[in-house]
Amino acid sequence: MKKADKFVMNAAGRIVPTIINGKKVTPFMGVNKYRPTHKGIATRIPTCIDYPKDGNKIVESLKEALIKSGLKDGMTISTHHHYRNGDYVANMIFDIAAELGIKDLRWFPSAAFPCHAPIIEHLKSGVVHHIEGSLNGPLGDFCSHGKMKGLGYLRSHGGRYRAIADGEIHIDIAVIAASAADMTGNANGVLGKHPFGPVSFSRTDAKNADRTIIVTDSLIDFPCYPWEIMGNDVDFVVALDEIGDPQKIVSGTTRITKSPDRLLIAEYCAKFVEAAGILKDGMNFQAGAGGTSLAFVHFIKEMMLEKGIKARSVVGGSTKFLVDMMEEGLTDYIFDGQTFGLEAISSLRDNPNHIPIGIFEIYDFHAKGNIARMLDVIVLGSTEVDVNFNANCVSHSDGRMLHGIGGFQNCMLAKCTILAVPSFRDRIPVIKDEVTTLVAPGELVDVIITERGIAINPRRKDLIEATKNSSLPIRDIKDLKKEIDQICGIPAKPKLSDEAVAVVEWIDGTILDTIRKVKK
Amino acid sequence: MAKISSAGNYGKEIRSDCKVTVELTKSGGLKLELVSKVKDYFEDQIISLAKNELKFFGIKNAKILIEDRGALDYIIAARIEAAIKQLLETKKEYLLPIINDNTNQTMKKCHRRSRLYLPGNTPKLAINAGIHKPDGIILDLEDSVAPAKKKEAAILVRNTLRSVNFYGAERMVRINQLPQGLIDLENIVPHNVNLILIPKCETAEQIKEVNSKIAKIKKEKKLKYNIWLMPIIESALGVINSYQIACSENVVALAIGLEDYTADLGIQRTTKGTETFFARSQIVNSAHAAKIQPIDSVFSDVSNMEALKQNVLISKSLGFAGMGCIHPRQIPIIHENYAPNINEIEKAQKIINAYNEAKEKGLGVVSLGSKMIDAPVIKKAQQTLDMAKIGGNDR
Prior knowledge:
The complex is a heterodimer. Chain A contains 15 helices and 28 strands.
């Protein structure tokens, strides 16, 4: 079986396969041009009489749970990423599979991290056939060099949810790490020894997998409430000594940047939001936990205090900074899919206005609306952008996959999407003629903000009009690029082979771009 | 002379710099090795730059190792030149073209509210310094450069003056204390520097020496542009001689350096600054007497913006027109707080309105309410409004 076959040019002008890992797929047809309708979901239909009357689903070990779940060759195993770089569970699963002599598994994580580097050995030995999910760090590098047997499949958080709903991915076994659970499988991420925050991205896995296993290091008496994962969706519960290290959720990102250039970028973002008339009472916005985003929150907060403005909601990843904002009365609600730090976890647990949200609420393409589309503004980072406002967040300019795709694409639906990027990194310009990997089509990227100037997408005449009398350095993106190229020099094009190693799916399930093998 | 040498910096924490090691060999041609994070993108560009430069210096046989952390061409060129100059006695300079933006001149009276110090041998800080819009950028050859690195810093500073766009900030260099500073001038003067800071200045005689050296270089190189001087007074003797210094040719501003001044007196520098009150007042007075700008010392606590603000307000009230800074985030605070505040602007506007009204009516005497307003008050009001126009937070 070829990893990828029958290539065509899609509506974004990218050459993409129409057959991936043996299955037929649809090429990208343009933003809002395609509606997936094939709800092909088919999960095992359980009945309560097949489960213990006393509700006790505890088994001795993860190995036993996997065997009882019928682990066999070729299955799809899902995990979540809420412990981020501190997760122990995914590695355990594939070590057990290797021990049992299982082959050709498909790992379907909501994201992978550098801590999952040991899985490279299982990819090499054939225990894991391929990964469908964010590929970054050592795993991304491995895949970029064409060493993975199957084609990598990069889906956004929302895209992952959609793929399950549409029956494109059938999860055989979902293994869900929970910081607290009871014997029947009611579970959450806010109680127990090592809380990590919401476990909401796993709800769909629990609902739609044939078998669902909860692993926890804190078994508590029934009921474990809040039950973000309901015991009624769970087959087995395993208590382990440890399942993850919440200290490593933070990977050095949740501090306000000290770099004067990045602070300037963040300040420009905040001033742009103000100049564009977005900063007003009742606004809803999203800002992540990266250094620049946090600095943006810091500046926005100062402006809100000065002008007496209050937001209605802020979407996390939540941090101490967002929690402080809520406690100081600057926002009524925090919507949260990922927490960073103990203050945020306590707030999520104790403050009813700190609301855990799942993919359905914020990003689902099949939902009858979603929160991302209602956001007034969202500030994101990016690895590359181009003169047509296309954006890349997964690969470096050398084509290597090094960053997770996360909710990047889903966020593009917000009313104003701002990409905050330095104009160059290590002499490599961030604004290109054409992005190496297309992750977000330019028509959805509204503003690109660098320390050297702000480029507004010509499609957004309203934003151009609103900010034209401001003192902000608003410039044509091509001028900006020219200036940056004069500083850095023009970099040579990446050396990539024709061989496809992964694809990027658009949120509607069509194939947006192909990632090719890195030479050398 | 040695056969092997190196210049520049390389390491995990280093960015936008490189270390160049050159070993002269008897035969075998040029052997170049590049270790770089950006090798995939810039290998050809870096290798061809290195080859041209080696050829320029007449080197035919050598092993060259460039360990790079994303250095721009002008930085790599400076490091190669510095390494070569440890091996060869040569007056030649490998110059990249000067960018257009770096040929402007500055006015004697231009704003000098903030001057941002950059260590002369740390290229990463210079590349983006201009985007933070300080009034001036100082490439420092003096205290922030280790003695062993002075020569390579001088070459890097020269290249920086030619290649880095400071987006309108006045291009300043702080030379070393004389007599070393006089040698620095040879490296700096021909490359469109706007202003030179003379550290630890104590006598007008020193300014004369600097001026005559600059004049000599300008004559030799047929340079037409003005080069302004900002002496820094950092001792008791300097304070006493400050008026003579301030009156010297080409001096446009007089700065005070309080760390060295308090050390000279053998006293502690305090936040309150009572111990330096006399020196600061003397500098302000000397500068105004000579019709130049008095410039305050650096405020070194980069994390305390509130304390900086208070410091600026005191500085402004004493009569200073600007101060030094060491972090870009200090710039807007400095600009904002040297600028007239809203009460000052309103009062000044009222005075000017009254003056204009009186002029229209042909009145000889201007009054506002029950107060008579005389010429100096009007002049001061106009200065306030001019200052307000350029604003504090003008970025």
